């Protein structure tokens, strides 16, 4: 059985705040971010409304995905913006495109 792991970037509706995460169930994770943004606002993504998926990568092995997540989190904002723009030039919401 082949597993799929995701490193992803979400943003708020104004595209001013970025959240980078790692998961093996991206739809569930996006739902959790949305729920928290509407209710408890305890997580970073929930507090800042980072519920719009704008970037993702898939991995077969979790170790590689976790390493990539850590790498992206160290980047400056300009480099993250460039990565997103190359993948998704209009920064469109991709929530319904990944499964």
From TrEMBL:
<protein>
    <submittedName>
        <fullName>GIY-YIG nuclease family protein</fullName>
    </submittedName>
</protein>
<dbReference type="InterPro" id="IPR035901">
    <property type="entry name" value="GIY-YIG_endonuc_sf"/>
</dbReference>
<feature type="domain" description="GIY-YIG">
    <location>
        <begin position="3"/>
        <end position="82"/>
    </location>
</feature>
<dbReference type="InterPro" id="IPR000305">
    <property type="entry name" value="GIY-YIG_endonuc"/>
</dbReference>
<comment type="similarity">
    <text>Belongs to the UPF0213 family.</text>
</comment>
<dbReference type="Pfam" id="PF01541">
    <property type="entry name" value="GIY-YIG"/>
</dbReference>
<dbReference type="InterPro" id="IPR050190">
    <property type="entry name" value="UPF0213_domain"/>
</dbReference>
